Structure prediction request, 120 residues.
Amino acid sequence: MPSRDAPKLHLNEHLSPRLASQLRRHGFDVTTSREAGLLSITDEEQMAYAAAEQRAIVTFNVRDFSYLHNQYLAENKEHWGIIFSTQEPISVLFHRLLRLLNSVTAEELKNQVRWLNEFQ
Prediction:
């Protein structure tokens, strides 16, 4: 069972909804772009959604979301974390996300960029 202060996640559209289902079975609060009706919207809109929902966004899109992270900081806007990953099988992503979710709080992830590869 996750702690009450575990980060909430939003999986960007390139991540499988199956990953969200697996994390939910372990009690984590996870949304996906598909479920939220956010397919094919801009990265800025994805980021705004995640920030408004107090969710860390999980993405493979390092270039664009690094830029957005810097933009948020420059504008003194808050976000709830950006989690970057290389493209890996769902089982690898799942285990790394479990390690992350059980290692950091939502507050610790706030305005931070983390790499899932740290949680091997």
Observations:
- The chain has a mean pLDDT of 95.
- Residues 96 and 119 are 5 Å apart (CA to CA).
